[in-house]
Each structure stands twice: as C-alpha cells, then as structure tokens.
Design brief:
By secondary structure, the chain is an alpha/beta fold. It folds into two domains: 118 residues, no CATH class; 128 residues, no CATH class. 42% of the residues lie in helices and 11% in strands. The chain has ten helices and six strands. The protein has a four-stranded mixed β-sheet with strand order 4-3-5-6, with helices on both faces. The chain has a two-stranded parallel ribbon with strand order 1-2. Helix 1 packs across helix 4, helix 4 packs across helix 5 and helix 7 crosses helix 8. The longest helix has 18 residues. The protein is globular, with a radius of gyration of 19 Å. It holds the Pfam family DUF3025. InterPro entries: DUF3025. This is DUF3025 domain-containing protein.
C-alpha cells in the first residue's frame, strides 16, 4: 500500500497485524487508489454486491442519510451504506467487501427488528445480538474433531491457559480466528491486552485448512450467513475471547500472561 496517498485517519493502521487478515485483501485493493470512497464503490460494483433486497450496494456520505431514518433501515431500503471519514466506518465498509453475505443477513435481521419494534431506548434482544455480532464478533473456526471440541469447552469454561497457551500448536492447523466486528478492528488499531471479542463458532472439516485464504473467506461468508438465517440470534450465542491471547497475536504469551485475572477472568457461576 502506498501510505503517502492515505488520508489522516489511516495513519495508525498496521496492516501486517494478524487481526486484519480478514479484510487485508479488500484494504489493499481500496488503498491502491487515491479516493478511498470511489474505490469502495468501484469494488462493490465490480463484484456485483447487493443488499438483502437485491439492491446494488454503495457507500455514501453520512450527510446523505435522511434525517430521522435509522441507519440499518436505510441500508435495507436503498442498498446505500452511510460511511463517515473515520476508522469505524471504513472498517465497516471493508467488512462489507470481505463478507458481503454475512453483512447482508445481519442487516436484514436489524432492519426487520426496526420494522417490528421501531427505534426506542432499547434495541430488543434480537437486534442487540445482531449489533454485537456486527460490531465486535470474531469468527472462531474450529475443526470438528475431539481436540477441537475440547478446546471450545476449555474456552467456554474460561480455562485460558489450557485453551490458548497449552493448545497453541492447534492454531492455524485446526483452529483459526478471523476478526469480523468493525468496532473490534478499530480498537485494535491501538491494541491493549483487555480487548475482548464476542466469538462465534464455525465448525469445519479438516479439508477446510487446505484451502487458500480467499477460498476460506468465501466459504466462511456462505457458511455463517446460512447459520444466521437458520438461527434465532441471542446474546447467549457468544463466547468471550481476549483477542491478544490468540496464539501469535501478541508477544510474551507465557504462562504468566494468561494468569492476568484482569483480562483472563474466571467464569462466573450461574
């Protein structure tokens, strides 16, 4: 990427970090052009991306969002995504380009909830769960095997050392983490140990890990969008994952690193 052409809000992004792998290909294509918004729209048009109503996807300025119209409802009704000149919205646009089917399904869920319940002080449980996914999810891809199931159980029980330190050799071989939430990516521009994602489990067969990164991304997009269509989304669906605890995502991941109770907390008893 040619950093001399980037506007100021890109300056702090280290694209070599593993948590940006999910959007790196899209970022490279967009940032190769002098106008990031024009590049976003050219990419969406070239790939024929649509919203859940089949309307062409495009990225507009925030000022083009009509007053009093909900953000998610506007995307659903028009295919136009209001996008401010900041990291939060830029990462959101990159996720649209990288996982368009998941984003379509999330938008469909959010818009349906707005149509049903309106916009009040509370989003309601289903819309809240969709918003959490959209903003802060990490996709936890796990081989459907005994070792994979054991690792997930350890994470759910907050057995952090066993799941992340002792099982580090499984990552990249039988386990993979993809950042999805654009708020999560924004926080990781200036990473700190306490950043915690809401992880969503995606079970895969061993053959998945033989695919290229592009093939994996496409497969995940189809799989997770299908999961969301067939499942009544709830905030109980997520497992907390301190992302700098993911093996190789941070230096100094020794035993003491995972004994920091301010980050790697014990599981609350019911």
């Amino acid at each position: 990427m040619q950093r001399s052409e980037l506007t100021h809000f890109y300056n702090g992004i280290d694209w070599s970090q593993p948590w940006y792998a999910a959007v790196l290909a899209a970022a490279r294509r967009v940032l190769a052009h002098s106008s990031w918004r024009d590049a976003l729209n050219a990419e969406a048009k070239q790939r024929g991306l649509n919203n859940h109503r089949g309307l062409p996807l495009c990225f507009i300025t925030q000022e083009e969002l009509p007053e009093g119209v909900a953000y998610e409802a506007h995307i659903s009704a028009t295919g136009k995504v209001p996008t401010r000149e900041n990291l939060h919205d830029f990462f959101n646009a990159l996720v649209w380009l990288s996982f368009p089917q998941i984003k379509c399904q999330l938008n469909a869920l959010q818009a349906a909830q707005i149509a049903s319940l309106g916009i009040g002080k509370s989003r309601g449980p289903a819309r809240d769960a969709a918003t959490i996914f959209d903003e802060n999810a990490a996709l936890l891809v796990i081989e459907n095997s005994e070792s994979g199931r054991q690792l997930l159980a350890q994470l759910q029980q907050h057995q952090w050392q066993a799941a992340l330190h002792d099982s580090a050799p499984l990552f990249g071989v039988k386990v993979q983490v993809w950042s999805f939430g654009h708020a999560l990516m924004e926080k990781l521009v200036q990473p700190y140990k306490g950043i915690t994602a809401h992880s969503w489990v995606v079970w895969v067969e061993p053959e998945y890990f033989n695919l290229s990164s592009e093939e994996q991304s496409t497969w995940i997009d189809v799989k997770v969008s299908s999961q969301l269509q067939q499942h009544n989304l709830s905030t109980n669906d997520y497992t907390p994952l301190p992302v700098l605890g993911v093996p190789t995502w941070c230096d100094g991941q020794d035993v003491a690193f995972y004994q920091d109770k301010s980050v790697f907390r014990d599981r609350r008893l019911p």
